[in-house]
From TrEMBL:
The chain crosses the membrane at residues 492-513. CDD domains: UbiB (cd13972). The gene is ubiB. InterPro entries: ABC1_dom, Kinase-like_dom_sf, Prot_kinase_dom, UbiB, UbiB_bact, UbiB_kinase. Belongs to the protein kinase superfamily. ADCK protein kinase family. The lineage of its organism: Bacteria, Pseudomonadati, Pseudomonadota, Alphaproteobacteria, Hyphomicrobiales. Keywords: ATP-binding, Cell inner membrane, Cell membrane, Kinase, Membrane, Nucleotide-binding, Transferase, Transmembrane, Transmembrane helix, Ubiquinone biosynthesis. Residues 123-518 form the Protein kinase domain. The keyword Transmembrane helix applies. The keyword rRNA processing does not apply. Pathway: Cofactor biosynthesis; ubiquinone biosynthesis [regulation]. This is 2-polyprenylphenol 6-hydroxylase. PROSITE patterns: PROTEIN_KINASE_DOM (PS50011).
Length: 518
């Protein structure tokens, strides 16, 4: 870690403290309590307006001024009310990638360097139509050597953004390690892993070829779906810093007046948005993880959702998908024991905690939701209350679920803006229940069987290495002893290892076949 990383961190800390980053209202989250004195000192430089109101309206502007890495970091913190408090998480939730564009005159040169001769096929470049922390988008006319001309969107990375990200991320790692070293209670929140999540996300966003691949993968996943539209990729015009896709027309999903004027059913649009997101997350394990209003449009002809900007994608494995489905279904059906058990199964709550006590805490969250109007029942509220009991049950952060949590809150916010009376539980139930029924049926059992055999096959594949290592260890241990005795030991060791592997495979198969349906 270079000394310059700490100087950059000090500068950023001053700017953020000045704009209210330390204005945490009320009691600090337990993990941050030891920082009370440092936060008090930092607030001495805070703007008077922040001290009077307790709000941090200017913080988003400060993050934008500090650069793209801080914008991404602010967006990540918006998903962690357990770290920054509910008020600041709410303030940061409005942080979106709205930045000044870089000089459009640089774009032709960037395209020529990235695409070579293919760059000449992109004509009639417009001024920037959108500018984010990492890239900006231009409308253009694609005139290929073969085929018909068509309108496209050309996304171009900001010059020098990779270097800026690398230096800023280094400062974030320095801050996380300092927090873990100086304040032991912050280790439960895994600040280094939060930074690692941000780092991985940024590395993916900084290669637009990977975004093109994400669009391609999602297109395959949703080819038989309705209600959700994404652009197509022009692979001849893609490079590390350039992405060209079809141009999609639509009404911005935040423009409710235009939607109403076009006759778009906003209630149906909200349901399509929420169900599409849940379908992608639960069924496919691959979802758009940046579904803020600026990335969403509505097709005025069909009333379908149109999504753009696939730089941030979320991926969860089958175990995590089952966790998400069970949690949602548990709240829908008031099966709080199921919700509690799934938290233990995935490792969210340590095994030394009480399942019964945790189920009771979950009930205290779920029961007030029933009998309330749809407008009072919020997925975001449920997540916030789950965070509130993390310290009581020593719950651990799951970095792989951070993007999912953020996306669920974003999607719910957009859907509720379209339809304030949206009952998210009723809308979610068909998608969740359908997937769970399939999981409990024959195809789900076959998938379980595949997973178990895959584990067993991997273990069997390592068996020769284990045997070789055992043979070497036994050879060293019995050096100088009779060879027949060594051979007998080796045979018994080999038979023992094979027996253990076989019994493990049989046990897994037996548990799978005798497992009760969900």
């Amino acid at each position: 870690m270079t000394l310059s990383a700490y100087f950059r961190l000090i500068r950023a800390g001053y700017v953020l403290a000045r704009e209210g980053a330390l204005s945490i209202p009320g009691e600090l989250p337990p993990a941050l309590a030891p920082l009370r004195l440092g936060i008090w000192l930092g607030r001495l430089v805070e703007r008077p307006s922040v001290r009077r109101t307790g709000h941090v309206e200017r913080l988003n502007k400060a993050l934008n001024r500090l650069g793209p890495t801080y914008v991404k970091f602010g967006q990540t913190l918006a998903t962690r009310p357990d770290v920054v408090g509910a008020q600041i998480a709410n303030d940061l939730a409005g942080l979106q990638d709205k930045m000044e564009p870089f000089d459009p005159a640089l774009v032709p040169g960037i395209l020529a360097a990235a695409l070579g001769g293919k760059a000449s096929e992109l004509t009639e470049l417009s001024p920037p139509v959108a500018a984010a922390s990492i890239a900006q988008v231009h409308k253009a006319r694609l005139r290929p050597a073969t085929g018909l001309p068509r309108t496209v969107a050309v996304k171009v990375l900001r010059p020098g953004v990779e270097t800026r990200f690398r230096s800023d991320i280094e400062s974030f790692y320095a801050a996380a390690r300092l927090a873990e070293g100086l304040v032991r209670s912050t280790r439960r929140l895994r600040p280094t892993e939060v930074v690692e999540t941000l780092d991985r996300s940024a590395r993916l966003e900084l290669d637009l070829r990977l975004e093109a691949a994400s669009i391609s993968e999602m297109a395959e996943n949703i080819k038989d779906d309705t209600g959700f539209i994404i652009p197509t990729v022009s692979w001849d015009h893609v490079a590390q810093n350039v992405l060209t896709t079809s141009w999609v027309d639509g009404i911005p999903i935040r423009d409710h007046a235009a939607l109403d004027a076009a006759g778009v059913d906003r209630r149906a649009l909200a349901a399509k948005l929420l169900q599409s997101f849940l379908r992608h997350a639960i069924r496919d394990g691959f979802f758009h993880a940046d579904m803020h209003p600026g990335n969403l449009f509505a097709d005025p002809k069909t009333g379908d959702v149109v999504a753009v900007d696939f730089g941030i994608m979320g991926r969860i494995n089958r175990k995590e998908r089952r966790f998400l489905a069970d949690i949602l279904y548990g709240f829908i059906t008031r099966n709080y024991r199921l919700v509690a058990e799934r938290h233990f199964d995935i490792g969210y709550v340590p095994k030394d905690q009480s399942v019964d006590d945790f189920a009771l805490a979950i009930r205290s969250i779920g029961e007030p939701l029933h009998g309330r109007t749809a407008a009072d029942i919020s997925m975001a509220k449920v997540l916030g209350q789950l965070f509130a009991i993390t310290d009581l049950f020593s719950m651990q952060t799951r970095p792989e679920l951070v993007l999912l949590q953020k996306s669920m809150v974003l999607v719910e916010g957009v859907a509720r803006a379209l339809d304030p009376d949206l009952d998210i539980w009723t809308v979610a139930e068909p998608v969740v229940a359908d997937w769970l029924r399939k999981e409990a049926g024959p195809m789900g059992r076959i998938d379980d069987l595949k997973d178990h055999f895959k584990v067993a096959a991997e273990a069997a594949g390592r068996l020769p290495v284990i045997v070789a290592q055992a043979e070497l260890a036994l050879s060293d241990y019995h050096a100088g002893k009779m060879r027949p005795r060594r051979d007998r030991l080796m045979r018994w060791a080999l038979l023992g290892l094979i027996g253990v592997t076989g019994l493990t495979m049989l046990t897994l198969l037996y548990r799978l076949l005798t497992m009760p349906s969900w």
